[in-house]
Amino acid sequence: MSNKKSLAARANAKARRKSLRLHGTIARDLGVLIVSGRYKPGDILNGEIDASDRLQVSRTAYREAVRILAAKGLVESRPKVGTRVSPQARWHMLDPDVLSWIFEFEPDDTLLSNLFELRKIVEPEAAALAAMRRTDEELEIMEKALQGMATHTLASEAGRLADQEFHSAMLRASGNAFIVSLTSGVGAAVSWTTIYKQRQNPLRRDPIPDHQKVFEAVKASDPKAAHAAMLNLVELAQLDTTNSRKPRTKAASSARS
Amino acid sequence: MSNKKSLAARANAKARRKSLRLHGTIARDLGVLIVSGRYKPGDILNGEIDASDRLQVSRTAYREAVRILAAKGLVESRPKVGTRVSPQARWHMLDPDVLSWIFEFEPDDTLLSNLFELRKIVEPEAAALAAMRRTDEELEIMEKALQGMATHTLASEAGRLADQEFHSAMLRASGNAFIVSLTSGVGAAVSWTTIYKQRQNPLRRDPIPDHQKVFEAVKASDPKAAHAAMLNLVELAQLDTTNSRKPRTKAASSARS
DNA sequence: TGAACGATATAACTCAGACAATTTCATGTT
DNA sequence: AACATGAAATTGTCTGAGTTATATCGTTCA
Hints:
Two copies of one chain form a homodimer. The first copy, chain A, has 257 residues and is mainly alpha-helical. The first copy, chain A, has two domains: 3-90, Arc Repressor Mutant, subunit A (Orthogonal Bundle), CATH 1.10.10.10; 96-244, GntR ligand-binding domain-like (Four Helix Bundle (Hemerythrin (Met), subunit A)), CATH 1.20.120.530. In chain A, 65% of the residues lie in helices and 3% in strands. Chain A has a two-stranded antiparallel ribbon. In chain A, α7 packs antiparallel against α11. Chain A is elongated, with a radius of gyration of 21 Å. Chain A binds a DNA duplex (30 and 30 nucleotides) through α1 and α4. Chains A, B: InterPro entries: GntR_C, TF_FadR/GntR_C, Tscrpt_reg_HTH_GntR, WH-like_DNA-bd_sf, WH_DNA-bd_sf. Chains A, B: Residues 20-88 form the HTH gntR-type domain.
């Protein structure tokens, strides 16, 4: 049967953007359905044979997808019971994939402000730590990212990547493995926010000076200044976002890249 | 042939304590090998057929285990290349499982102090938020946990669970989904620290008053006091830990590799 | 000389179908 | 009423085969 072939081909075509395998695409699809509320906590997913039948994939592939979701705390499966969606409190909200699935559609305001809340708590402290611990190499990386933001505008993909890289390098420079693992969360927020701002209000404050201030403080090994500058940076970012947000505009599908 | 049966039986017996399936136990075993440094970033795991042969399990089970590890950022697998251990910066350090695997053996001092560093950043702020947002139900839960710590001593499992529950309830009361998802990390640190302290120094300061102070501040809806009390609490906990740690107390401050 | 292109080998990936293990639930027994 | 027993449903595990992606290397062409 050429059935499976065409199936796999279609699935792969759909997921080519990140070279996901079949199980990966299934996990993403189900994951999005869950975090978007289409499946609610407590719901029981269809049985393996049933579900894999509908998706026209083998049970193996479907099961591996479920393993992925379970590993991220989204579901839990038991014999005789089935696979049930876990309560939101068990979800690994800071998992890069979970976060990207959340941002696949426009996340609700509460979640977004929660994420900013966390950023305002962690990033200033991370900057302060970075001011004390940064190596020259890390400093150089941050400077390059800053230049990247300047040359390419934030309207371009390259510019946004530079922005993310700046924040990412800052977290790495904090020298704290756990803070580093928050990078993806910050990155998602940064990128999504920037895209959103760009769409709503193309002409806005130049973000370079704010970043420059943080950089200077870190370079000068001044923790307090770094803390203040970073807090200011994040607060302004949030302000721009919430100000420009209008009720229920449609979502951008490319929240991540 | 009773070969597989005995195998599955043995594996399950080994993991009965948490009703892990076969793939779960394999994932845990491999995960521990990775986070403990037995497999280093860049290393390529044995091929599926080879590895599953050695472990005497089916390729299916082994593959599902690898999917779990991949979902947690520990490994990445590609055709023609194999499954390679990812650089530490990609690991999901705050994933409950990863964390528990790290704490399976005595974690190194740097990591432990990093975790406390994050706690000192997040938990006080969480307490401050909780002071503003807590519901009466949440307050009640915290009070119950406090009583639990008092009646059962911290030497007992019940007491330690109560301690965890107190911190967990505090994070939940912060009303921030992302902060809530840090619960497991805090819990791991709390429980491990307590056990360790208990082992090293059975007679130590009574922790109840410190917790009581935090609770009172949250009950009184006083964010600043809650922040201060929680910071004090975490700092004392860390102090006890590092003080009682004896042999290889090298540098706790330099977080460089 | 070197750069683009194509074959090849190798690993993960996907499939299919069978059987085993676990847990819930209903039933019957003491 | 409490407890043991068994049946049913669902995930879990196994086997073995074929498929697909990709790094490597050799070939051809500029």
